[in-house]
Amino acid sequence: MYEVDYKKIENAVTMILEAIGENPDREGLVETPKRVAKMYAEMFEGLNKDPRDYFKTVFNENHDEVVLVKDIPFHSMCEHHLVPFFGHAHVAYIPRDGVVAGLSKLARAVETTARRPQLQERITSTVADVLMEMLNPVGAFVVIEAEHMCMTMRGIRKPGAKTMTTVARGIYEHDDIKRAEILSLIKMS
After folding, report:
1. Are the C-beta atoms of residues 163 and 120 closer than 8 Å to each other?
2. Would you please indicate which residues are annotated as catalytic (active-site) residues?
């Protein structure tokens, strides 16, 4: 497990402030390097966690239909620009042989995966792959919709634009009826 080097982050933030022409010693900025270091430690705590750990305990509930947790809020940091992106994840699976996980574990897997320098596409596939590996379900389907500050604050500057990514595993890869079913459940209020 890697320990966050707070001092190194503080020094880097001080250098960034100086590089943009700011005075890191002025009243409003004196504590900024420390605050940023603490924030980064929190924002990137997923680097020291494995989302598979949440699925080590499972239950046999004789349930063989869709399990869906939708509208899971998350935030992450774009690894290309180190600015936030945020949105909602929808995570579904069809249990095999009645094996289910606690519902909060789906949200925890999203949260842990998102708390790294990240790409939305990678969060989507990682969560689906972890479900497939740890639960061996009939299928897993993950949808993530997010707004990226690298598109709204800079570059193209299009606030409100959302990016959607999907990953289908197992039965969802080839069964159009199952895919349509899960997409309709996600769209329901």
Report:
1. yes
2. 78-81, 120, 148, 150
The answer to whether domain 6-43 has CATH 3.40.50.20 is no
| All residues at 6 or more sequence positions from 25 whose CB lies less than 8 Å from its CB, including other chains | none
Residues 6+ apart with CB under 8 A from 186: 68, 70, 90, 92, 143
Interval 110-167: pLDDT, tens: 999 999 999 999 999 999 999 999 999 999 999 999 999 999 998 899 999 999 999 9
Report domain extents, the chain: 6-43, 57-187
Closest alpha carbon to 148 in 93, 74, 95, 98: 74
Residues forming a β-bridge with 69: 91
Cα-flanking dihedrals φ and ψ of residue 102, to 5°? -60, 140
Position 187 scores a pLDDT of: 95
| Total residues belonging to the chain | 189
- The CATH class that applies to domain 57-187 reads alpha beta
CA-closest candidate to residue 73, choices 121, 108, 100, 49: 108
